[in-house]
Each structure stands twice: as C-alpha cells, then as structure tokens.
Design brief:
2 domains; N-(1-d-carboxylethyl)-l-norvaline Dehydrogenase, domain 2; 8-stranded mixed β-sheet; Rossmann fold; 12% strand
Amino acid sequence: MKSIDDIKRIAVLGAGTMGPGIAQIFAMGGYEVAMWTRSEETRDKAKHTLRRSLETFAEEDLLPKDAVESVYARVGFVSAVSEAVRDADFIMETIVENRGAKAELFAEIDKAARRDCIIASNTSALNIFEIVPPSRLPQTAIAHWYAPPQLIPLVEVVKSEEAPEEYLSITVALLEKCGKTAVPMKKFIRGYIANRMQMCLNQEVFYLLDNGYCTPEDIDKAVKASFIPRAVVLGLCKRADFGGLDMTANNYKNKSYTPPPAVDMPATLKAHIDRGELGLKSGKGFYDYTGADRQALLAKRDKQLFEIFKIAKKFMDDPV
C-alpha cells in the first residue's frame, strides 16, 4: 500500500458506543464498510443508531436527504471477523477497553487480514502496540476518536515504531478525506493530547470542589465564559503567543500557580459514586436530571454540538 488511493474497503470491528458513528463517517466519505459485532442485539441496535444519525445529519444539512439511503447501504453488517477483514484495506478496531478481548480480536485479525492493510485501534487507555502480534506492528496505528465520533471532529493518530511513515500519512489523509480533524503525533503516550488536557482540568475541578471554593455551576459558568470559547479561536499555544511568552514565563518565575496534590480518588467524586449518582444515565450527578427527557437532552446536546463545531471549523479554516 502506497497511497490513500489504495484504500477501497474498510472494516469497523465493534458496534457498541463508537462503532456506528465511525462507520457512518467512513460511509459518508464514500467507502464501503463492513461492520462486525458478535452480538445480534448489538448489531440490530447499531443499525438503528446508524440510520437515525444519518437522518439527523440530513436534518442539519450536513448530508443531502436523498443520500441517507445510499450512505446507509454502504455499511454491511457481518457476524464473522474473517468476513469483515479479508478484503479490507483499512481496519478500524473499536471494541471494549479490555486487554484480553483486544488480544483475542487481534489474533483473529492476524489470521484473516491481508498483509498490506493498515490496522488501526481506537483504544483510549491501552498501549495497543504491546497487544498486537509482533508481526503486525509494521501495519499498526492508533486512531483515537472522541464520542460521539460522528460529531466530534478530532482523531489523534500515532503509528507503531515499526510502521513506515507513509502509513501515518495515509491514515491522516483518510480521516481528513472523511471530514475529520486528524492530528498526527510523533510518538505514543497514554492519554494522547486532549485526554491528558482533560485530566489536568479534572484534577483542578475536584480540588476546587473538595475544598469548597465553588460549586459545579460556578465552574461551568466560569470556563464557558472565558478560556473555552477563546480556545476555539486561539487554541492554547497560540494564546500564549498572543499574550506574550514572557508573561507565561513570569507566571512560572512568580510561582503564581501551585498544582493540587495528587489524590487516589477525589472526595466529591467518591461521594457521588457511593450514592449511585452517575450523571445523566442515572438521573443525577453534579446536576439533577430527575424527570428530564434523556433522549431530548441528548438531541439538544447534539444540535448544539453541530452548531459549535460549524463555527470552530470556520475559524480553523481561517486562523488568526
């Protein structure tokens, strides 16, 4: 394989939280997609999820209404890994974050997939390069999507040390052709870019809450009215440029920030978990969703995400 033009057929392995959205993006990009899952129930749910999402994209004018059926038809659902991968030029693994399950799946892929295909994993917590068969490392990469994958533009991409640079370039080009914002990384680190940033924020969120400095509502209001919308325009590194790197250096010199101490589990988070308050899915978390229509809230979230990412793309296409 030498270029993106060599990719014609894509296999998406796993039809749970991420699979249908990922398959949708590839199908909207014009590719034939084989989607595999072991469970018939999961497969039926994925079919419904895919069709409903395509209809939503049409409602948002991101897909012609008369294209919904043809895009849906590009996704075929199969029950055997070998059937999904045998003719695939690009394989996207999206199954549960379980080391044993991934090792088992990659052993099946190894037996059935062509030797010239690219194998990518969506793993968010595991070092997949320690799991895949060694002989497959020269074809392996990570393409880390964010949920919901059909809405969030970012996909972080990193190849194995054994894979050629062209495989990274092909993966990035494929994702960009399908409308994603693909960010290539120079080498693997657990958490990639965005998740590591989010974990830093989580440490501060729970430090402020555990020590009674503010409420969850205060935190959300503060960040939505300051650096989060600013970051849509400037990001983080360019924001430092605009503010002056000397100012950033002074913050370090003056020790104007002291990181919170590390904890095994924030007290505020543990209290919510102990009470069974898991967020929207349980009806209560930081906020109380008692009596709320969960599907209506999710639909409203998605509509607002559509709007904000349209604006973000406009700024990314014409940066300051």
